[in-house]
Design goal:
The protein has about 200 residues and is an alpha+beta fold. It is about 35% helix and about 35% strand. The strands form two sheets. It has a five-stranded antiparallel beta sheet with strand order 5-4-8-7-6, with helices on both faces. Strands 1-2-3 form a three-stranded antiparallel beta sheet, with helices on one face. A hairpin with a 5-residue loop joins strand 1 and strand 2. The chain is elongated and about 115 Å long. The mean pLDDT is about 90.
Length: about 200
C-alpha cells in the first residue's frame, strides 16, 4: 500500500475478540497527501470453508476412484474420454496421456460398435441409465477383453445431457468360464446321445 498506493484482493486471517478465527479480503487505496486511506473488506470465511470442504470431498472422491478394481469413466457426447481412473487405463493397456480424449471406436471391437452407439444414444434420448451392458474391447496390445458397463447421463448446469459416466468391469474370465461350461455341457449331451444309441 505504501509502495504502490493501493492494494487489491488482499486476504488475511484474523482473530476476533472472542478468539474465533475468520478470514477477510481487503482492497484499499492510500491518499498520502491528505493523510488517510480508505478501503473495503469483507468476511470470506464461508468461502474459505466451502473451498476446504470441496478439497476434502475431491480428495475422498479421488481416493475411492484410485482404490477401485473396476474402471470408472466419463466421456463427452461424442464418446471421447474426459476423465477415468487408473483401473481403466490398466484394462485397456494405455497410459493416461494416450487414453485422454480417445474415442470409444478406437478400442471397441468392430462388431460391437453399433450396439455401443445404440446403447449410449438410448441413454441420451431417454435419460435412463443402462446397467450391465456387455461389449468386447481391444486393448493397446490387441488383446480382446469382455467388459460389463453401466452408462449414466451426465448433465450440464441447464440439465441437458453433456456426456456419460459409468463403471466398467472386466468379465473376461467369467465369459471364458461360461463358454468352457457350455462346451462341456454340449460334449456331455453328445456323449449321452452316443451312449443311448
Amino acid at each position: 500500500l505504501a509502495e504502490f498506493g493501493e492494494v487489491n484482493e488482499f486476504e488475511a486471517r484474523f482473530s476476533r475478540k472472542d478468539g474465533s478465527i475468520f478470514f477477510a479480503r481487503f482492497s484499499a487505496r492510500a491518499y498520502p497527501e491528505d493523510g488517510f486511506l480508505e478501503g473495503v473488506g469483507y468476511d470470506i470465511t464461508r468461502e474459505k470453508d466451502a473451498i476446504e470442504e470441496l478439497r476434502v470431498s475431491e480428495e475422498k472422491y479421488r481416493t475411492i476412484l484410485e482404490s477401485m478394481e473396476e474402471g470408472y469413466y466419463e466421456v463427452d457426447i461424442a464418446g471421447n474420454f474426459t476423465f477415468f481412473n487408473d483401473s481403466l487405463c490398466e484394462m485397456l493397456g494405455y497410459a493416461e496421456g494416450e487414453l485422454m480424449g480417445m474415442n470409444y471406436r478406437k478400442y471397441t471391437a468392430e462388431e460391437n460398435a453399433e450396439d455401443v452407439y445404440r446403447t449410449f444414444n438410448r441413454v441420451f434420448m431417454t435419460g435412463v441409465p443402462a446397467k450391465g451392458f456387455d461389449w468386447e474391447i481391444i486393448g493397446k496390445d490387441g488383446t480382446r477383453r469382455s467388459i460389463e458397463v453401466s452408462v449414466s447421463p451426465r448433465r450440464d448446469a441447464e440439465g441437458a445431457v453433456a456426456g456419460f459416466s459409468g463403471i466398467v468391469r472386466d468379465i473376461t474370465e467369467r465369459k471364458q468360464a461360461e463358454e468352457a461350461l457350455e462346451k462341456l455341457q454340449a460334449q456331455l449331451m453328445q456323449a449321452q446321445k452316443m451312449e443311448s444309441m
